[in-house]
Amino acid sequence: MSGSNTDTLTIVDVTNKVAPTQISRNGYAGRGYTHQGWLSDDHRYFLLDDELDERDFVHNTRTYIWDLLDLDNPILLGNYTGTNTAYDHNQYIKGNFAYQSNYRAGLRILDITNIAAASLSEVAFFDIYPANDNNGFNGTWSNYPYFDSGIVVVSGIEQGLFILKPNLGGGSDPPTASIVAPLAGSTVSGAELIQIDAADDSDALGSLTVEWNIDGGTWQPTLFNGASSYYEATGATTTSSNGPVTLNARAIDSDLGATNVNVALNVGNTLPTFQINQSTLKARR
Questions:
Q1: Interior angle at CA 127, CA 173 and CA 61, nearest 5
Q2: Rounded Cα distance, 277 and 238, in Å
Q3: What is the rounded CA–CA span in Å between residue 205 and residue 53?
Q4: Which of 145, 183, 225, 268 is deepest in the core (most CB within 10 A)?
Q5: Per the structure, how many domains does the chain have?
Q6: Residues 30/63, Cβ–Cβ less than 8 Å
């Protein structure tokens, strides 16, 4: 048995139900509250979700990818970082897909085909809390993806039960996407031009749905610019405090295949200064 145990990945031999024995216990950097995880179908890999690392370490939703070939010495291969700051709660694996209930970000479905290389990609989502994708204990708490029909049921804390039928096979590859401007690591201020390069093998140029947000906020639309061949928008940096932020972007094709990308930026708006000319001041009598 492998378990997410508050602050560690703990593996226990439960052959003897009366006297289980611990095989290994491993922590990891950046742990907040080690909450839950699930084994791949071959039991080789384990996806672990930490419910509070997004809050405690101020980063986007993070899934930790473990190799359990050696149960005495599990190896943390890397992590997958999502495009928003929502807490992750429960996730399950069926075949080549992981189904994550990430509170305000809704159901997130990841392709785990390349899990051995610690490379996961989001292929579908269903947002049951459209107000925002920030961290907070609203939205979806869990899901169940194991019906033979392919139906996935998703529970919402305030919203009720959703019955979904994801289309995960037979379509085209998801679109390609990259953020052209602003450049990763750059300092932005005022009104910044956002340019996103996105294309798909089966959709016409300029026909994709391409959106962006800052730090997991509400998704904002872009417009395709035929002259530059980029999807563009203008972002007002004055709505964010000075300091590090994450610019997220996603491209969605007609098959609902999605690709998410992000870059780290630094907001550096100059605060206004005021000068008082003392010679013009008079005391009120």
A1: 80
A2: 28
A3: 39
A4: 145
A5: 2
A6: no
Q: Tokens at residue 69, please?
A: 């070939």
Please name the residue that has the structure tokens 């491993």: 26
| Residue 16 lies inside a defined structural domain of this protein | yes
The dihedral formed by the CA atoms of 81, 169, 106 and 235, expressed in degrees to the nearest 10: 60
Structure confidence by residue, pLDDT tens digits, 182-225? 999 999 999 999 999 999 887 888 999 999 999 988 999 999 99
Do 146 and 30 reside in the same domain of the chain?
yes
Containing structural domain, residue 90: 2-164
Q: Which amino acid is at 124?
A: A
pLDDT tier, 149 (very low <50, low <70, confident <90, very high otherwise): confident
Q: Which has more pLDDT, 255 or 68?
A: 68
How far, in Å, CA of 257 to CA of 170, rounded? Answer: 11
Q: Beta partners for 62? A: 81
Give the global pTM. Answer: 0.62
